[in-house]
Write a structure and sequence with these properties.
The complex is a heterotrimer of chains A (482), B (95) and C (478). Chain A has helices spanning 6-14, 20-38, 46-62, 103-111, 153-160, 177-182, 217-227, 262-266, 271-286, 302-317, 336-347, 350-363, 368-389, 415-419, 426-431, 459-472, and strands at residues 41-44, 72-76, 114-119, 167-170, 186-189, 210-214, 257-261, 290-294, 395-399, 435-443, 446-454. In chain A, helix 7 (217-227) runs antiparallel to helix 16 (459-472) and helix 10 (302-317) crosses helix 13. The two termini of chain A are 15 Å apart. Chain A has an 8-stranded mixed β-sheet. In chain A, strands 1-3-2 form a 3-stranded mixed β-sheet, sandwiched between helices. Chain A contains 16 helices and 11 strands. Chain A has a domain at 300-377. In chain B, strand 2 and strand 3 (87-91) form a beta hairpin. Chain B has a two-stranded antiparallel ribbon. Chain B has a domain at 5-42: Histone, subunit A, CATH 1.10.20. Chain C contains 15 helices and 17 strands. In chain C, the strands form 4 sheets. Chain C has a 9-stranded mixed β-sheet with strand order 3-7-8-11-1-12-13-14-15. A 3-stranded antiparallel β-sheet of chain C has the order 6-5-16, with no helix packed on it. Chain C has a two-stranded antiparallel sheet with strand order 4-17. Chain C starts with a strand and ends with a helix. Classes of the chains: A alpha/beta (482), B alpha+beta (95), C alpha+beta (478). Chains A and B meet through helix 10, helix 11, helix 12, helix 13 and helix 14 of A and helix 1, helix 2 and strand 3 of B. Strand 3 (87-91) of chain B pairs antiparallel with strand 10 of chain C.
Chain lengths: 482, 95, 478
């Protein structure tokens, strides 16, 4: 049962071969039994889940169910959930009970989905390994000595370990795609503005985007159907029409033009990873796609640009955590300044403080032009590269990560090396494009992800391209030995 | 660009972060390394390029001027570290 | 040494929207603490701002009214600083691309000369909450009801040369924002307040002196006093060999002095950058034309019209148009009086104003309506009552005793115009006061006043004064 996809569970729920309560209880039991190994959940919400499952069963019985009605899901702990602790992986919010629902959560509730709990993550989504969480590192179910990736590492591990059929993630520089790659999942970061950011605790507002982490492209399409859409509460949310993302899944790939950015293949990738990626691309070629070499000349500057833009926005976004209205306040502050400094100094972890300081520095007098504006100009160059590429091709492909999952502790003392593990994913966020990672094979028994990048609002095409691959390969069906 | 102890202290103050004296050297090192990475930006000429603050080339949508919110003070105040009479309390503000 | 004073004002006008600039909370004044602070105003994790349409329209309206350039592409920036009344740790404002740039307004100087004051810019931003320093065991209470109320910050050029000019300019803007109906102008509630940048330099020197910023002044009287104090302080300081430092000072109206705000002394670095949660405000010509076409008649135009249409003196027209409500009251009174604009102006500026001042009321709170006042003036002009009796009627009207006609009727105040009756009264008085009659006839004409007085007294002031004069003259001649 735990190997079943959402698409399969929908059928079982609707033909009543299983109830949502049974399904939910089974997952809750499995979490309880196994999650001490992976640490993928920060909060499990059994009472709420069963209550939602009961309601879902009534809805299923009444015949007014939506596709996700009764499907148990794990939600990244970055989404505010009314009445449930929402920590964003930080000590700062360890005592924070969100007083409202994020739009994404609201949409899942409307659809009748069941929330199993809130998943572990890098603190405030700042990290690529899930090691910066206040709640401890998450272990990769494929090898518990390795990281699951980050920042949506808890969601990735939960789905990979079959503790939830699917989960949500958020992606600011690769935080859905990179853990999906390292845990053999399908992860989709939609176009910036496709999914509402309201109620999603902000890291870098102009880069953050929520998306699904699933077993298959088809499940990702089903999830995105529920998540996407206009939200009057988010000024940056698009009011473009939301298509049915499952509609185009079965289009064949004949004549599909795949762009291969030469910069992605030149250097940096592990040989074993490169081999898997080449094989995957070859599979597409055999399926009728046309391969086109393209260039993204400025993509090499995406990491430097990102590490100005994201920390700058974060330094300001995280100023609200000041110990005044919610969250951590230090003991016995002697005065106002002491309260600010110690509440923030004690409430934030090292990586978060590091990024706040970089951002503060980049925006400060005398450095604004040299760092912030410069980075935003380079951002435009990076984005223009993609624009030109999409004049020639339909999708862009390459690796999601340069290596497979690294060991816990391996990079945690060297921020810059850690940052470079997002080298292939970050440009997509800077440009605001949709990107996916799908299971493409294994290198030294660890999963490798193939990255697909689409043009703005072309999630349907990405999902189609991914789904077709999953019709002719079974990498996505591989599960870790438990 | 490499940062000194005094730079780290100044930035930490601006960002209102208390930092252990002992940790300052490692912050200085790490931040300097990040800035070194960032300095690669200078390898490209951007003199004719306008900064891109946002992935979307869209205009701000405007909201109708209507009161849509109701009082939820007690609900919101539950998360506050210290309150009295419906107010958030903080150490004395001196003007 | 002769000193020249240089002043620039930053006026904060709260925009009269129903809801806040970035949320749907009410902006109504005086609610219980934090009952009008929603998730967005509190800066809860995950919340996002959406811009209020009216706030933008009001900003554009102001820009068009001061002949400024209303930007078709303005951008919200974040001004980062930590303060408990600033819930997000930043204020959303407009630094790099404000909605209004380079406008101007004319003020009238004491000598009657007109001076143009440049307005550098006006930008939209959100107000902060309030810190309450009552004793909560030595803690400060934070009320965020005001947080997120839309403000238009109007920044003048350093064109003002005295405290008096600064007041004249502030009054002009105060009048304008009320005319435009973009701000209620209530200074007591803080809807209209200003910061003053003050510096002095030796007369003839080109370079500006170091300025001090006086924060949060919320009355015209305080602006003048605070600036004058600051000028004196700076001149004294320099003449004693000292140096003005650039700082923020607070005006203490109780002690009537400015003092340095020590807590804000540290060099601020606000780290402004474009707010990534908001997109640029884009306005087009159609939008701006529509606003332009709907602009109301502005004070200057109204003043000119009053002079022309009602034949008023410039100074009267000036006072009547300075406040929008007063100008409306005057015009309505004139309409109800069926003309007689000059008498109406005299009554509005005289009796009405005096009574309002005495009772500390504003024109909108006047217990007498323009209709009532017009009715009274009608009875003066048709000679039903004399000007003197009219004052009695006015008083009764103020006290809520009804319309002029009701009061005249009830109190029997109708003017006596029956000359037979008046003659009879005069005859009686002359008979009783033979001595005075003799005096008058022997050339001592001063006693004429005595007879007028006696006649009016006998008729309880109701006799038509003109008739009394004529008849007395005739009879006393003999």
């Amino acid at each position: 049962m735990f190997q079943k996809t959402i698409a399969e569970l929908i059928i079982e729920l609707q033909n009543k071969s299983i109830s949502s309560v049974e399904l939910t209880q089974a997952y809750l039991n499995r979490i309880q039994k196994n999650d001490q190994i992976y640490n993928s959940f920060i909060t499990v919400t059994p009472d709420l889940a069963l209550e939602q499952a009961e309601r879902a069963d009534k809805r299923l019985a009444a015949g007014n169910a939506e596709p996700l009605t009764g499907i148990p899901l794990a939600q990244k702990d970055i989404f505010c959930t009314n009445g449930v602790k929402t920590s964003s992986g930080s000590k700062m919010l360890d005592n924070f009970i969100a007083p409202y629902d994020a739009t994404v959560i609201d949409k899942f509730n409307q659809a009748g989905a069941v929330m199993l709990g809130k998943t572990n993550m890098d603190e405030f989504a700042m990290g690529s390994s899930n090691e910066t969480s206040f709640y401890g590192p998450v272990k990769n179910p494929w090898n518990t000595n390795t990281v699951p990736g980050g920042s949506s590492g808890g969601s990735a591990a939960a789905v990979a370990a079959q503790l939830a059929p699917a989960a949500t993630g958020t992606d600011t520089g690769g935080s859905i795609r990179q853990p999906a790659a390292l845990c053999n999942l399908t992860g989709l970061k939609p176009t910036y503005g496709r999914v509402s950011r309201y109620g999603m605790i902000a890291f870098a507002s102009s880069l953050d985007q929520a998306g699904p982490m699933t077993k298959t492209a088809e499940d990702a399409a089903i999830m995105l159907n529920a998540m996407a859409g206009f939200d009057p509460k988010d000024s940056t949310c698009s009011n473009k029409n939301v298509p049915d993302y499952t509609a185009d899944l079965n289009k064949n790939l004949k004549g599909l033009k795949i762009g291969l950015p030469k910069e992605f293949f030149e250097k940096g990738m592990d040989e074993s990873v490169a081999k898997v990626i080449e094989d995957a691309i070859d599979t597409y070629k055999k399926a009728g796609a046309e391969l086109v070499e393209i260039s993204l000349p400025n993509s090499g500057l995406s990491v430097p640009s990102y590490y100005v833009v994201a920390p700058a926005e974060a330094s300001s976004n995280l100023s609200r955590f000041d110990g005044v209205r919610y969250g951590y306040r230090c003991e016995n502050p002697v005065d106002l300044e002491d309260m600010y400094k110690r509440s923030r100094g004690e409430g934030f972890g090292e990586e978060v403080k590091r990024r706040i300081m970089i951002g503060t520095y980049a925006l400060s007098v005398g450095f604004y032009d040299a760092y912030y504006l410069k980075a935003q100009k380079v951002r435009r160059l990076i984005s223009e590269d993609f624009k030109k590429a999409f004049e020639k091709v339909d999708v862009i492909m390459g690796p999601t990560t340069p290596t497979t999952a690294f060991n816990i502790g391996e990079k945690s003392n060297d921020p810059v090396t850690m940052y470079l593990s997002d080298i292939y994913t970050i440009a997509v966020n800077l440009a605001g494009l949709p990107g996916m990672s799908i299971p493409a094979g294994f290198a030294n028994n660890m999963p490798v992800g193939l990255q697909l990048i689409g043009n703005y609002f072309e999630e349907s095409r990405l999902l189609n391209v991914a789904h077709q691959y999953q019709q002719i390969t079974d990498w996505h069906k591989q599960t870790p030995a438990m | 660009m490499s940062l000194h102890k005094s730079d780290v202290e100044k930035i930490a103050h601006l960002a209102r972060l208390s930092i252990n004296e002992d940790d300052i050297p490692s912050y200085a090192d790490n931040l300097s390394n990040i800035l070194k990475l960032v300095d690669q930006l200078n390898t490209v000429d951007t003199s004719d390029i306008s900064p891109m603050a946002h992935p979307q080339d869209a205009a701000q949508r405007l909201r109708e001027d209507e009161v849509t919110e109701t009082d939820q003070r007690d609900h919101f105040l539950k998360n506050a570290p210290k309150t009295a009479d419906g107010l958030f309390l903080v150490p004395k503000v001196i003007e | 040494m002769e000193w020249e004073v240089v002043i620039g004002l930053e006026i904060h006008a709260q925009l009269a929207t129903k809801s806040k600039i970035f949320s749907g909370s009410s902006t109504a004044y005086g609610a219980a603490p934090n009952t009008q602070a929603c998730a967005v105003d509190l800066g809860l994790p995950g919340v996002l701002p959406v811009v209020n349409k009216e706030a933008v329209a009001m900003g554009a309206k102001f820009g068009l009214a001061i002949g400024a350039n209303v930007s078709k592409h303005s951008v919200f920036d974040r001004k980062n600083y930590f303060y408990p009344d600033s819930p997000k740790g930043y204020q959303t404002s407009q630094l790099y691309f404000p909605i209004v740039e380079s406008g101007h307004i004319e003020i009238e100087l004491e000598d009657g000369k007109i001076k143009t004051i440049g307005i550098t810019r006006a930008h939209l931003e959100e107000d902060a909450g309030k810190s309450l320093h009552e004793n909560y065991n030595d803690l400060t209470g934070i009320d965020l009801n005001r947080a997120g109320t839309p403000l238009l910050e109007i920044v003048s050029e350093p064109d003002l040369r005295s405290a008096k000019e600064a007041v004249a300019y502030m009054k002009k803007i105060h009048s304008l924002v009320q005319y435009l109906e973009i701000c209620d102008g209530n200074m007591q509630e803080g809807s209209f307040r200003c910061d003053a940048n003050v510096s002095v330099r030796p007369k003839g020197q080109e370079e500006l002196g170091t300025r001090a910023e006086i924060k949060n002044i919320n009355s015209f009287r305080f602006v003048e006093r605070a600036i004058n104090h600051e000028i004196e302080r700076q001149i004294e300081l320099i003449e004693d060999g000292g140096r003005v430092i650039q700082e923020t000072r607070l005006y203490d109206s109780d002690k009537d002095e400015t003092r340095s705000m020590r807590s804000k002394e540290e060099a601020n670095d606000y780290r402004y950058f474009p707010c990534p949660d908001l997109l640029p405000i884009v306005l087009d010509d159609t939008y701006l034309d529509a606003i332009k076409n709907k602009l109301p008649e502005l004070p200057e135009a109204k003043k000119t019209r009053f002079i022309k249409e009602y034949d008023l003196k410039s100074i009267d027209a000036d006072i009547l148009t300075a406040q929008k409500d007063l100008s409306i009251f005057f015009e309505a009174t004139t309409k109800h009086a069926g003309g007689e604009a000059k008498i109406c102006a005299n009554w509005v500026l005289g009796e009405v104003n005096a009574a309002l001042n005495k009772n500390e009321l504003s024109i909108s709170e006047s217990p007498i309506t323009p209709e009532q006042l017009g009715g009274l003036i009608k009875r003066i002009s048709d000679k039903t009552i004399s000007g003197k009796i009219a004052k009695t009627v006015f008083e009764a009207m103020w006290n809520g005793e009804g319309s002029a006609d009701d009061i005249i009727e009830k109190k029997g105040l109708k003017q006596v115009t029956d000359s037979g009756l008046i003659e009879k009264v005069i005859d009686e008085i002359m008979t009783k006061n033979q001595g005075q009659v003799e005096q008058y006839r022997s050339g001592k004409e001063q006693v004429f006043g005595f007879f007028v007085g006696q006649t009016m007294k006998a008729t309880q002031g109701k006799a038509n004064p003109q008739q009394v004069n004529e008849l007395l003259k005739k009879k006393l001649k003999g």
